[in-house]
Amino acid sequence: LPALAALLPPLPGPGAPGPAEGGPGALPAELRAAVRALVGDLDALFTALGLREESFAVGTLSRVVAAELASYAPARNRRRMAANKASVVFVDRTLDLAGAVGHHGDNLAEKILSVLPKLPGHKTDVMVNMVELTALQTTDETCSIIAPGCLAQPNDPAAKALWESFMNLKQKEAVMEARRHLVEAASRENLPIRMSMGRVTPEQLSSYIQLFRNNLKALENHCGLLQLVLATVQTLKHPQTSKWDNFLAFERLLLQTIGESEMPSVLNQLLPMIKSYSERTKDDYTCEDFLVLLVYMYSVVGEIKSGKELDTAEEEVKKALVKVICDEPKPSPVLQKI
Q1: Which of 37, 59, 213, 334 is the most exposed place for a label (fewest CB within 10 A)?
Q2: Name one GO biological process term (predicted).
Q3: In Å, what is the CA distance from 304 to each residue of 117, 133, 258?
Q4: What residue ranges do the domains of the chain occupy?
């Protein structure tokens, strides 16, 4: 539900009433309105599918949503008439922040969705640069003459099968699947393709894609597949992808360190890595990267022993982050909000 992508359960803060105590009435007005909108949308969806649902909830806001849906008058009428049964499980997004910010998946779909720019107006699809399939050769990343491709290819069975493998296989196997699909498509179109064995490189996939470039019929027949393979090539070449492995290594180190020592010493280790824009190289972490790491750290550590040492360490990290955020020449939307 892209319109409600920003709906998040309120984080427990000092003195903030949790929705558990007071039900919907305890929520801020804006959140109450968003919950009602969500319930209306879900009811419309279930009506279209002819469902009578049984709801289960994990988390405080989820319980509010499930209760609202149960008592929603149009939903009660629908449940009386609907032919199909379904179980619906609501889960608070804040219960697994470590999962949302971690980099543990060896999964191509996750990387494509994280690395490529979002398709305007969408939350779950990305823009695939299609310039490579045209005669227009430009180095401009934001070339807007050529309409972008995307991942949703409901009318192309080969592309749908490939997307399934992006989600379900390990990255290495998924990239090999991309090559196999390309080779099969090229063979069907009688394009002069030479199958090579061994490791699949983004350059090799690009050279296969080039074969389709001047053949309009082949382009039209396999457009969906080509968009997914281009998304793969652009993700594998993206600088953020090599950073992904750095994140993974650092997260593993953090888990080890947190197991052995207290939070203040972990924060002190992090401190020298917070560098301002002028000091950073392409391998250093940006402000957003640090915010992601901090969310990960505080999510996996569980209960933290408070005390003078922790306060001092947190204060130092805060100071360093404030300085770095203020030094950003072009702050991202997230940093502008902060």
Answers
A1: 334
A2: vesicle-mediated transport
A3: 36, 53, 11
A4: 23-95, 108-237, 240-337
